[in-house]
Amino acid sequence: MLQKLIVIALSLTVFVSSAQEKSKKAAMPDIPGSFIIDFGFNRAINPPDKFSQDFWGSRTVNVYYRYPVRFGRTKFSVIPSIGLSLERYKFSNNFTLDRIPASDGTYPLFIATTQFPNTTIIKSMLVTNYLELPIGFRYDTKPEDIASSVSFELGGRVGVLYQSFTKVKYEENGETKKSFDEQSHGLNSLRYGLYGRFGIGGFNFFTFYNLSPTFEANKGPGKTTMNSFTFGISINGF
Q1: 203 has which bridge partners?
Q2: Is CB count within 10 Å lower at the N or C end of the chain?
């Protein structure tokens, strides 16, 4: 699913850029707004015991439609957006979240071979997907020529969890199998945080700090207060 969404997002970005270029040649108005794609890595802050992450496997892909509104003839603009944030946390120790809560209401972490005995675990991960509404304030050194402008942007994001599941890939009797358990696992249904962007033209670096706890109070493993930090690069289609 993640790979398909990346392909769709890239196609939309190319389509918008191509359409706008043709529009300019035909002396017609530009298509309003733009698409932006973030590729980044997730890091847990204050994770619970045994929540051990694989760096390269804990990835984020964000896809947003943005509509910049410039403040008159100034170099400042406000940018409301809407889109998807698709995140995964890959466990480096082959642990996973339990299917049912423990007696204290939390969802404990345990080694995946407990659930899949006599198998070889290939990988295990937690996937969280959000519908998000970011809004930011941007400064451009060349607002009349965004494609070559150096830009600085700060803003906030609010997201609603619309899908979450654990995924375990394992080998049994020489055959590769996958198991998905789609449920909330005690995750917060609402999150909010701050983000920043810096770059030139259509290429940016971005960061996002999740201010809200990843799990609901007293529901995550070990009653964790874990939140997260994401960083990576952005590609913008004008």
Answers
A1: 200, 235
A2: N
Dihedral angle of Cα 82, 83, 88, 89, to the nearest 10 degrees: -10
Ramachandran angles phi, psi of 222, nearest 5°: 60, 25
Whole-angstrom CA distances from 15 to 8, 21, 33, 237 are: 10, 10, 13, 9
Phi, psi for residue 233 in degrees, rounded to 5: -120, 160
33-237 fold: Porin (2.40.160)
Query: Residue 64 forms beta bridges with which residues?
Result: 36, 83
Helix, coil or strand: residue 91: strand
Say if CB 34 and CB 234 are below 8 A apart.
no
Per DSSP, what are the bridge partners of residue 198?
152, 205
Structure tokens at 196: 């920043």
Q: What would the DSSP string read from start to end of 215-228? A: B-TTTSGGG---EE
pLDDT at 26 over 50: no
**pLDDT tens-place string over residues 38-95:** 999 999 999 999 999 999 999 999 999 999 999 999 999 999 999 999 999 999 999 9
Q: Are 91 and 124 in contact (CB under 8 A)?
A: yes
pLDDT in tens, 169-227: 999 999 999 999 999 999 999 999 999 999 999 999 999 999 999 999 999 999 999 99
Alpha helices in 59-144 (DSSP H): none
How does DSSP classify residue 51? -
Measured in whole angstroms, the distance separating CA 223 from the mean position of its chain's CA atoms is 24
> Which contiguous run of DSSP H or E holds residue 95?
strand 95-97
